[in-house]
Write a structure and sequence with these properties.
Blueprint: H1 3-10, H2 13-18, H3 22-33, E1 39-43, E2 59-64, H4 67-80, E3 84-88, E4 101-107, H5 116-126, E5 127-138, H6 144-162, H7 170-177, E6 179-186, E7 191-197
Parallel strand pairs: 1-2, 1-4, 2-3, 4-5
Antiparallel strand pairs: 5-7, 6-7
Helix pairs in contact: 5-7
Domain Methyltransferase type: 41-135
Keywords: Methyltransferase, S-adenosyl-L-methionine, Transferase, Ubiquinone
GO molecular function: S-adenosylmethionine-dependent methyltransferase activity
Length: 200
């Protein structure tokens, strides 16, 4: 079963699954979105957990590979009175012209994307020169002990449940494609917030 099918089955229950983590993660989502300016693309919007944090002057476009998730996010945007456009689309195949966006945001997406390097290349392509790419991601910890005692078992569980990979080093990939302006490590690197700028 693909990650799309697994997330489609979860639907609204995804909120329940992640509810215990909201206290820790929602302030980080708010902070990540605070870097957004102008025409913004959110990659992997899911059930729309970031939507309430967007300022009204941002022109928001949001994608997800799972149609069921896109419908939930659209409903949430309507409830919030948010003017946003939603698309069913893969991160590895963004159907937008090059240099279309001032900001691209990815929030807990690169642990699931099947081909992270292709997705990163696509984000770089659709971002305008001088634009910002914002990543709030699960990553491999700086602590070997945490990786073995916590992340490795979690990786097995979430891998089976959602095709998530909690041991990816997305921060390295961000550094290969963007000039990193800001980076924060939380919970010994289990979560990182990175802001990169495209040259030019």
């Amino acid at each position: 079963m693909s990650f799309r099918e697994k997330y489609a089955r979860l639907g609204e229950r995804y909120n329940v699954l992640e509810k215990p983590l909201d206290g820790a993660l929602c302030p980080l989502r708010r902070k990540a979105v605070s870097f957004a300016r102008g025409k913004t693309l959110e990659i992997g919007v899911g059930v729309g957990k970031t939507l309430r944090y967007y300022p009204k002057d941002v022109e928001l476009h949001a994608i997800d590979a799972v149609p069921e998730m896109v419908r939930i996010a659209e409903n949430r945007a309507r409830e919030l009175g948010l003017n946003a456009r939603f698309y069913v689309m893969d991160a590895e195949r963004l159907e937008f012209p090059s240099e279309s966006f001032d900001t691209v945001i990815s929030s807990f997406v690169f642990c699931t994307v099947p081909n992270p390097e292709v997705a990163m290349r696509e984000i770089h392509r659709v971002l305008k020169p001088g634009g910002r790419a914002i990543f709030l991601e699960h990553t491999k910890s700086d602590s070997r002990l945490l990786n073995w005692l916590f992340l490795k078992p979690l990786d097995l569980l979430l891998g089976a449940l959602l095709d998530d990979n909690t041991l990816r080093e997305t921060q390295r990939l961000v550094g290969e494609y963007f000039e990193v302006e800001h980076e924060e490590s939380h919970y010994h690197g289990i979560v990182r917030l990175m802001v990169g700028r495209k040259e030019g």
